[in-house]
């Protein structure tokens, strides 16, 4: 009996088992946490992070972006005389930008045109249009074609009879293969300046190119439709060869004729 009693005394109580499990779990958790901390990279943001790389990126965007809403709010607090002073300063930035462009300092000219846009009063829409168009020309020289188109578009919004802005945008559209948009701009130039030889030549050049492209697209589309049709018709023992497309020369539309074929 005493031996049995001694054996039972070696068996831990429920409380002791729970304490032991909890202790092991806590120790393992602590070790695992320490290991993970050692493995994981330090993602803490240095105190000067906002003033390092991000500042450079934001600065670049800020130099290019013109906040016209903010400019409008600011101008509401200015006198007419103050607006004239700002307009004069903007024209000086434009002059300097033009000089930079002539010297092929395109990045510098972009900055100068942007500075002019930041202070030129909104009521001087014609001058603002020139600043945008000139900045677009500088961007085009740096192969920033999409951005250049955006600036030309802004110039046209400010002055919808600005032939030079249409001309620059028309060329850029053609360079990025947006032929329909390019043709529309050339036609607008002809509307504004019927004697513009370059616009007439561009229209003659682009119309057949657009028609050729459309024909290729149509052939590709019909080819894909034919492949899809064969997949659908195959279970019925048919193919698209059983259907003949006939174009109406008057309307350009198509009619479909069914032919069962010989058996």
The helix-strand sequence is HHHHHHHHHHHEE
If you average the pLDDT, what whole number results? 78
CATH class of the domain at 67-158: Mainly Alpha
Rg over alpha carbons: 36 Å
Report the CATH superfamily of the domain at 67-158. Tetratricopeptide repeat domain
The tally of strands reads 2
Overall SS class: mainly alpha
What characterizes the major β-sheet? 2 strands, antiparallel
Q: Termini separation (Å)? A: 104 Å
CATH architecture of the domain at 67-158: Alpha Horseshoe
Q: Indicate the overall shape.
A: elongated
Point out poorly predicted stretches. 1-14, 28-62
Proportion of strand residues: under 5%
Say what the CATH topology of the domain at 67-158 is.
Answer: Serine Threonine Protein Phosphatase 5, Tetratricopeptide repeat
Kindly state the percentage of residues in helix.
over 70%
Region (Disordered): 32-60
Organism: Hypothenemus hampei (Coffee berry borer)
Protein name: Tetratricopeptide repeat protein 1
Keywords: TPR repeat
Q: Could you characterize what this model shows?
A:
This protein has 263 residues and is mainly alpha-helical. Among the domains are: 67-158, Tetratricopeptide repeat domain (Serine Threonine Protein Phosphatase 5, Tetratricopeptide repeat), CATH 1.25.40.10; 160-240, Tetratricopeptide repeat domain (Serine Threonine Protein Phosphatase 5, Tetratricopeptide repeat, Alpha Horseshoe). The protein is 71% helix and 4% strand. It has a two-stranded antiparallel ribbon. α6 (106-119) packs antiparallel against α7, α7 (125-141) runs antiparallel to α8 and α10 runs antiparallel to α11.
């Amino acid at each position: 009996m005493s031996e049995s009693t001694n054996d039972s005394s070696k068996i831990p109580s429920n409380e002791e088992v729970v304490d032991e499990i909890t202790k092991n779990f806590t120790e393992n958790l602590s070790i695992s946490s320490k290991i993970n901390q050692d493995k994981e990279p330090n993602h803490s943001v240095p105190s000067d992070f906002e003033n390092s790389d991000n500042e450079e990126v934001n600065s670049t965007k800020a130099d290019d972006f013109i906040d016209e809403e903010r400019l409008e709010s600011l101008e509401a607090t200015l006198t007419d005389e103050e607006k004239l002073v700002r307009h004069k300063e903007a024209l000086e930035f434009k002059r300097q930008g033009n000089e930079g462009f002539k010297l092929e300092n395109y990045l510098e000219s972009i900055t100068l045109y942007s500075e002019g846009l930041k202070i030129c009063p909104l009521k001087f829409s014609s001058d603002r249009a020139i600043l945008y168009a000139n900045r677009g020309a500088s961007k085009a020289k740096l192969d920033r074609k999409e951005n250049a188109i955006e600036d030309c578009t802004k110039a046209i919004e400010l002055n919808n009879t600005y032939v030079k802005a249409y001309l620059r945008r028309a060329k850029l559209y053609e360079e990025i293969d947006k032929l329909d948009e390019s043709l529309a701009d050339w036609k607008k130039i002809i509307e504004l300046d019927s004697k513009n030889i370059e616009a007439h030549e561009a229209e003659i050049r682009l119309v057949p190119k657009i028609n050729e492209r459309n024909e290729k697209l149509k052939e590709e589309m019909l080819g894909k439709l034919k492949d899809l049709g064969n997949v659908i018709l195959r279970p019925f023992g048919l193919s698209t060869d059983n259907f003949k497309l006939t174009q109406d020369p008057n309307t350009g539309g198509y009619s479909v004729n069914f032919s069962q074929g010989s058996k």
